Amino acid sequence: MLKVFCSPARYVQGRDATRELAQQMRRLGLTTRPSIIVGPRTRRETEPLWRDTFGTAGMAFDVIDFGGECSRPEIERCIAEARRTGAGCIVGVGGGKVLDTARAVADALDLPVVCCPTIASSDAPCSALSVVYTPDGVFAECLYYRRNPELVLVDTSLIARAPVRYLIAGMGDALATWFEADTVHRAHRTNVVGGASTQAALAIARLCYQTLRADAREALAAARQGAVTPALERIIEANILLSGLGFESGGLAVAHAVHNGLTAAPQTHQYLHGEKVAFGTLVQLVLEGRASEEIAEVMGFCADVGLPLTLSQLGITELSPDQARLIAERAVAPGESSHHEPFELTWVMVKDAILAADALGRDFLARRSQVAGQH
Ligand SMILES: [Zn+2]
């Protein structure tokens, strides 16, 4: 099997990076009439910055207001709009759904795409895929593209000002990266782009987990003040770049499949992707029979930063046998990344690991609050 590594052509990150958007695009030859896809709230915050940067560069641009869901009809509407204005490239500015839509539109029109995440809630911005939902928000399909974005530009000032829950969720998504990439590698399975993993992908995934453990606490303190610090910069890089390269070129395993299973439970709908992935990571560690010290380390991380360790922290206060089966069966559906584990996997094994991880999580939290009570 050939090793395959993919990445965006360029990654730019830093304080007030939006001010340099046009110059950075210019360096890559992206000079003809960008169409910017953006939600209304982000537009109010960033449009003055675009006027400056594109004005200085002497570039005209158009704005497409995003309707709120990355669905087929919304993608079609944005394609028509970009066609009508003669877009030379597509720029997505905002959260995951906006960027997913921007990538889909760019691919359909065979145009380069620039992703400007304004929150660090997942590792999707660098990738060559989109998650598409029905207009009422139910998962529909994944679309895979020929190319990764030309440019990913991350303005850490904007991300520092966003609600910290997004940053924490991004850490949950990034938490899974090392464990999934490691499993895929050891099981000789394929990464997201259908190749074996490179040393580079594994090293990046490992660094992602190390960065989370070293910098999460300090980064969160800064983000709560809206302050950009080196620790916050490193966590943002871990959430978006390290985790993005790590998952796509390293591969996915049970953690993300459990996430997909959990989306079948309506109680979890108000929880973010990364929050469900964090719990999925604990399920993966239990399922793989990892050492209890290793599981405790990951649980400690989750408890420290405020990621869920239990089903009730994901809105599931009571799990009926039927719902447990539904979640577990969804996680082992054909084509799911759960089949990247090095052993044959059944829904019963996943169900048992979910129940056991939940019990361990409750136990962990109870012991923590006991210790806190003694001081
Ligand atoms: Zn993810």
Can you describe what's shown?
The chain is an alpha/beta fold. Helices cover 55% and strands 11% of the residues. It contains 13 helices and 8 strands. The radius of gyration is 20 Å and the shape is globular. The mean pLDDT is 96. Bound molecules: zinc ion. Zinc ion (ZN) binds at residues 122-123, 173, 256, 273, 277.
Features:
375 residues, alpha/beta, six-stranded parallel β-sheet, two-stranded antiparallel sheet, 13 helices, 11% strand, binds zinc ion
Given the helix and strand composition, which structural class is it?
A: alpha/beta
Q: How much helix, percentage-wise, in residues? A: 40-55%
Bound ligands, named by name, code or SMILES? zinc ion
Low-confidence segments: none
- Beta-strand content estimate: 5-15%
Shape: globular
* Overall mean pLDDT: 96
Major beta-sheet overview = 6 strands, parallel
Give the strand order, joined by hyphens, for the main sheet: 1-8-5-4-2-3
Distance between the termini: 55 Å
Q: How many distinct beta strands?
A: 8
Radius of gyration: 20 Å
Distinct helical segment count: 13
Helix and strand sequence: EHEHEHEHEEEEHHHHHHHHH
Reconstruct the topology from this structure.
Elements: E1 10-14, H1 21-27, E2 34-38, H2 40-57, E3 62-65, H3 72-84, E4 89-94, H4 96-109, E5 113-117, E6 129-133, E7 139-144, E8 151-155, H5 156-161, H6 164-186, H7 199-224, H8 230-250, H9 254-262, H10 273-287, H11 292-305, H12 321-331, H13 347-374
Parallel strand pairs: 1-8, 2-3, 2-4, 4-5, 5-8
Antiparallel strand pairs: 6-7
Helix pairs in contact: 1-2, 3-4, 6-7, 6-8, 6-10, 7-8, 9-10, 9-12, 10-11, 10-13, 12-13
This protein binds zinc ion.
Residues 122-123, 173, 256, 273, 277 line the site of zinc ion.
